[in-house]
Batch of 2 targets.
Target 1
Amino acid sequence: MVARKETRGLTERSELCPRQTERSELRLWRNPLPVKNLFLSPTDGLRRAMEVIDAGRIGMALVVDSDGRLLGTLTDGDVRRHLLGGGGQDERVEKYYCRKPVTATTGYDRAGLARVAEDHGIKLIPFLEDGRPTRLLTPADLEEKDQPAILGGEPAFREPIPVARPTLPSFEEISDELERVLASGIITNGPQVEAFEREAAAWMGTEPENVVAVSSCTTGLVLALSRIEPPGEVVMPSFTYFATGLAATWNRLTPVFVDARPEDFNVDAGAVSEAIGDKTNGAPSAIVGVYIFGCPPPVAELRELADRHGIPLILDAAHAFGAGQDGTPAGRFGDVEVFSLSPTKPVTSGEGGLIVCREEATAADLRRRRNLGLLDSATDPTRGLNGRMSEFNAVLGRASLRHLEKNLQTRRRLVQVYHDELGDTPGLGFQKLPPGAVSTFKDLAVVVDSEKLGMTRDDLAQGLAAENIGTKRYFSPPLHLQRRFAGLSRTVGPLKVTERLADGVLCLPLYSHQEEEDVRRVAATVKRLVAHAEEVNRRLTELRREWE
Ligand SMILES: Cc1ncc(COP(=O)(O)O)c(C=O)c1O
């Protein structure tokens, strides 16, 4: 008999032993004895072998060496045939055992193994770890199971899929430009960066003079907020990435954290207004809004508040290249808006950021601050740092921008698939876009209501990790609960929505070149986990006890 070579997880041995298990006690196949009770040494006599086989009650013993490594199997049929042929009970096991049994190792191919087992009438298959049998696979192990991986089913994906992945141009697409950069010897802050600023400005319907490319969004935010003097308070959401708060504290500004809206997870303009009203000695120095996961914050209301108090509106647009509100693209609402071009963003330059300013003079000042605050040798430097973008990053960013429209369409289509597949799942909510808002869907965020879903957000994430599905708990903990802001910030009101979101939001995999089939499979896996919520919770409790 010859084993199918393509059956992954089988041992290399190509010949199979006849009828590895000869006694059919189905009851026991589901619950076999600890394998150690089945161990025999090759030097044991057949009398001992019969005792072990009888006690094991599965018609088979495992022959192992002194290190517990499997040498082969011995069935009661092998022994009986020998005895019936007139052989003696004192002869050694080593003469009779089968040296080529079917075995399985980690990652075995369930379907392939089931086929081999069926073709050869094998019921129990030793499972080896480092060559040592640790258990016997039973027919139940080989059955097609619609079980979550955390309960022993096959993982939904063989290879891990990350929560986000950059969508990159081909080498051919950018090779000429890269060659030109290399030939020119200008590798930072040169014509590619200028072209990128021009093209980004065109995308947003503004002038190239108003756009400043920088080395990251964090740098851009730090530079934008460095213009606020003297240092005061800046009102911002707590439900955001920590770079938003960091840019303020880096400039010795005091973040004033306010709550978010439950529907779109964006800052609550009413809470911003309350925070400003709550000030006894004058208005804060700025309002900082954020496009959460690419969805615009309430820009009209924030603008109205900023104008009323005569303070700038700065928007952290890290997620927002390609977003818009009522037909106006992101970049055109704040006095300053700062975009991120890091690898998880819809437009990426590897690392990088773009500052877009309402006023040309502001952009000119930021251009200077990007260059350590230097203007020329005759003028004293202002505050600044090295925030320049390299030409290589600009080449990548320009190519990414060329694909933006198509990539945004793909993201929207995939988000719709998630909605179609998971929209009816009780306990799973989606970020709801306000009327007229266009999101980039930098992330696909669901918010878990543990009571209704039957499992917590973190258990769902664990269950998905076992399926090789990457997720992200954005933004948890929220900024007002992070130690790095303790003593450097202020919080207005209980931030109930923020805390609920921080406990409930989970981002599922989404990227611009993702296959629709993958999204469907992720969604089906979420549903399967939810359908097994009780067992999954029980299993995770057990595992956590083991890990402790
Ligand atoms: C809301 C927000 N702001 C700022 C940043 C910082 O962007 P960068 O990595 O380009 O500095 C990020 C990064 O993901 C972000 O999510």
Note: The CA atoms of residues 427 and 452 lie 4 Å apart.
Target 2
Amino acid sequence: MTGTVSLPKWENEQALYHTRSEATMQRMNWAHGVLEPAPEIRETARTLGQLDGIFQNASAWRAMDPGIVVYRVQAWCPLVEGVEGGLFWGTTLVEPGQVDSEYFMTHGHFHAKRDRTEYYATLEGEGALILMDESRKTWTEPMTRGSVHFIPPRIAHRVANCGSVPLRCVACWPSDAGHDYEAIRKSGFGAQLLNVNGEPKLVPSRT
Ligand SMILES: [Fe+2]
């Protein structure tokens, strides 16, 4: 049975995995982390204008072209989001750039189910995985080609590009993790990653 994309019933796990693996096998270019376009791959782009309140210097953000693309995401979600027990796969490309001295970065999120975890791995570029616990303690892990990162439970995460070329990474996360963007929209992270004399430096956020 090939070519069908109708969702089998989750109760019949064997049928689900068998059918889905045949029907939805994807290909990725590992050099560039790009999934081949397919109906089941969702592609989104986030522009500066869509990242209101994310960057520290609001007046510098307002002065920039809101149409500039900051990052792009491809998400391969072969199960219905929210179903327990599956895994999703995604690729993210963060463009090089800054708002004032703050590096271009993704919006960031906690998982809606806070105990869900995730892997990130870097394919190209230089950047930082910015992590924050629920007490707002914030830290980073350097992202370079080949770095693999485990995001523990109850940790918010975002990716910043500290280099001069696109930062490309892949991610794998549970199908029932969900995304809580609102918590970040309201309170942000505990620190911002700024370019200080050419080096990335975490600086406590203004509250
Ligand atoms: Fe996540």
Note: The pocket of fe (ii) ion is lined by residues 109, 111, 118, 157, 173 (CB under 6 Å).
